[in-house]
From TrEMBL:
This is 2Fe-2S iron-sulfur cluster binding domain-containing protein. Residues 1-75 form the 2Fe-2S ferredoxin-type domain. PROSITE patterns: 2FE2S_FER_1, 2FE2S_FER_2. Keywords: 2Fe-2S, Iron, Iron-sulfur, Metal-binding, Oxidoreductase. Coiled coil: none annotated. It comes from Sphingobium psychrophilum. GO terms for molecular function: 2 iron, 2 sulfur cluster binding; metal ion binding; oxidoreductase activity, acting on the aldehyde or oxo group of donors.
Length: 168
C-alpha cells in the first residue's frame, strides 16, 4: 500500500483519520499546500489526486492509497516553472501568495477538465487548435478557490493566458 506524491512512493498513515492535508504538511513536510479554513470552503488546500482537483483538508489520506497526488511542489521547479506558475508571476496573480498553490493546482486541473470536454459554455477553436474560455467561465470554474487579497483579476488573466496556449 502506497501513496505516490509528486512521483515518490510513501506509505499511507497508520491512523485512518489523518487528512491528506495533514499527511502532506506534517508527515511529508510539503508545506506548499496551505491550511485555510480546514472546512473545504476556501480552496487553499487544493491538490491534484490522479490529476483531478481535490480539497486535501476533506480527503482522508487513505483515500489516496494506490493513487497519485501532485502538490504545488510537484508542478514545477525554480529552474523550470509550470506555465501557470510563470503566468501568475507575469500577471501578478498573487498578493500575499497564501492561496496561490491551491489556485495553481485548481487551474491546472481545470484546464485539463476543459481539454477533456467536461460540459461548459466554452469554445474550442479547432481551426486554431486552442481552447477559448470566457472570463466568466474561468471565474465560475475557479469559484471554489478564494483569494482574500483580491488578486482575482490577475489570477483570471494568468489562467486565460495559459488557456490560450493549451492544446485540446
Amino acid at each position: 500500500m502506497t501513496i505516490k506524491v509528486n512521483g515518490q512512493d510513501f506509505p499511507p498513515p497508520d491512523d485512518a483519520r489523518v487528512s491528506l492535508l495533514d499527511l502532506l504538511r506534517e508527515q511529508l513536510h510539503l508545506t506548499g499546500t496551505k491550511v485555510g479554513c480546514n472546512q473545504g470552503a476556501c480552496g487553499a488546500c487544493t491538490v491534484l489526486l490522479d490529476s483531478r482537483r481535490v480539497l486535501s483538508c476533506l480527503t482522508l489520506a487513505v483515500q489516496a492509497d494506490g493513487r497519485s497526488v501532485t502538490t504545488i511542489e510537484g508542478l514545477g521547479t525554480a529552474e523550470a516553472l509550470h506555465p501557470l506558475q510563470a503566468a501568475f508571476i507575469e500577471h501578478d496573480g498573487f498578493q500575499c501568495g497564501y492561496c496561490t498553490p491551491g489556485q495553481i493546482c485548481a487551474a491546472t486541473a481545470m484546464l485539463e477538465e476543459v481539454a477533456a470536454g467536461m460540459p461548459s459554455y466554452l469554445t474550442v477553436d479547432l481551426a486554431a487548435d486552442r481552447i477559448t474560455l470566457s472570463r466568466e467561465e474561468v471565474q465560475e470554474r475557479m469559484s471554489g478557490n478564494l483569494c482574500r487579497c483580491g488578486a482575482h483579476n490577475g489570477i483570471i488573466d494568468a489562467i486565460l493566458d495559459v488557456a490560450g496556449e493549451h492544446r485540446p
